[in-house]
Specification:
The chain contains five helices and seven strands, in the order E-E-H-E-E-H-H-E-H-E-E-H. By secondary structure, it is an alpha/beta fold. It has a single domain (4-133), classed as CBS-domain (Roll). Helix 1 (23-33) links the parallel strand 2 (17-18) and strand 3 (37-41). The longest helix has 12 residues, at 53-64.
Length: 135
């Protein structure tokens, strides 16, 4: 298996937030999607970073003083993020993908113009490895 696209969850099937979303919009999106981290995209479709529940919690505490009305006025890009999931390109090797997935629960995938095309989850890689090891 040398093609990482085998593992790709396409953008159309991914939950994500836009970089101009407010904290409240991000909270609602994260709640409805049921994920603890979401990719952040520009309106042009470029990957901008990763937003986690922890980032939102600290953003609410530090910027909104736990007031949801203030969360409607603050943009998510104002939040200090602990770390962003580093994206890969479709030409990335399986070894590099596995290395990246070992420290990220999902790996964003971008094309040669840095447009977000989807994610590869760590669980999809583990599932594939399990199937190969225990045929």
């Amino acid at each position: 298996m040398n093609n990482i696209l085998f593992f790709l969850t396409p953008k159309a099937m991914c939950a994500y937030v836009y970089d101009d979303h407010t904290l409240r919009q991000a909270l609602e999106k994260m709640e409805s999607a049921g994920f603890a981290a979401l990719p952040i995209l520009s309106r042009r479709g470029e990957y901008r970073g990763t937003l986690t529940e922890g980032d939102l919690l600290w953003g609410l505490k530090n910027m909104c003083y736990m007031d949801m009305r203030q969360a409607e006025a603050r943009k998510i890009m104002e939040i200090s993020r602990r770390r962003d999931n580093i994206p890969v390109r479709v030409t990335t090797s399986m070894k590099d993908l596995v290395d990246r997935a070992s420290t990220q629960n999902f790996v964003p995938v971008v094309d040669d113009k840095d447009a977000f095309i989807g994610i590869i989850t760590r669980s999809s890689i583990i599932k594939y490895c399990r199937e190969q090891l225990f045929k």
